[in-house]
Amino acid sequence: MDMRKSEDLYLFIVSAKTCTQIKSRNPKATSGSYIIDPDGPGGHGPFMVFCDMNDKMAVGVTVVGHDSEKRTSVKGFESPGSYKRAVSYLGGDFDAVAKLSGLVDASKNCEQFIKYECYDSVLFRSDPYGWWVSRKLEKMTYWGGATPADSLKCACGVTSPNSCAGNNGCNCDINDSKWRKDEGLLKEKSDLPVLQLRFGDTGGMGEKGYYTLGKLRCYGEE
């Protein structure tokens, strides 16, 4: 391959802020790994992502994975938030949060799937046992499918009428001896990505839970 063409292609890709920008520049671009630089020269530096060029009406979705995507058991942690899981992005890059903040700010939309499966394990209720931590290191007490204005609520708690088990804010808050789940997409850009997961109320006999956290997905241009 001609070295000049190779260099031009590299600069073309790295100069792109998001996968959406890559797709808009080259409508024939296919899904795969690309290097992007959301905050440009002099910023926090480029990094590699996966570009899904088919999802969201083929607009070009930037996908960033992490080390906590596997469905994970929580058992033996009774106090609120006593279970802690820090979420690491970009292979543990020390500048990952700053780099991903640049991606989020450069994108029109971002989302991250979150789910908690519970058996006799409360999520929020009036005194939260579980929560997640935002990129600003703030304790967040709304769940996937809800918004920051929906404190102590999950997706079922913001439907009209309320569709949660027991008419609570979340299905898990009924705290009965049945498997329940609360899941949905977190979409508030200023809070993403999720940096930590916290859970409790799994220390008693039979109490247990499982959590799942999806990849960060951003699309559109700001």
From TrEMBL:
Single GO molecular function: extracellular matrix structural constituent
Q: Cite the entry's keywords alphabetically.
A: Collagen, Secreted
Q: Where is the Fibrillar collagen NC1 domain?
A: 15-205
Any one of the GO CC terms: extracellular region
Write down the InterPro entries for this protein, in alphabetical order.
Fib_collagen_C (IPR000885), Fibrinogen-like_C (IPR036056)
SUPFAM superfamilies referenced in this protein's UniProt entry, alphabetically: Fibrinogen C-terminal domain-like
Broad class of the protein's primary localization: secreted
Where is it located?
A: Secreted
Q: What is this protein called?
A: Contactin-associated protein 1
Q: Please give the organism.
A: Acropora cervicornis
**Where is the organism placed in the taxonomic lineage, from the top?**
Eukaryota, Metazoa, Cnidaria, Anthozoa, Hexacorallia
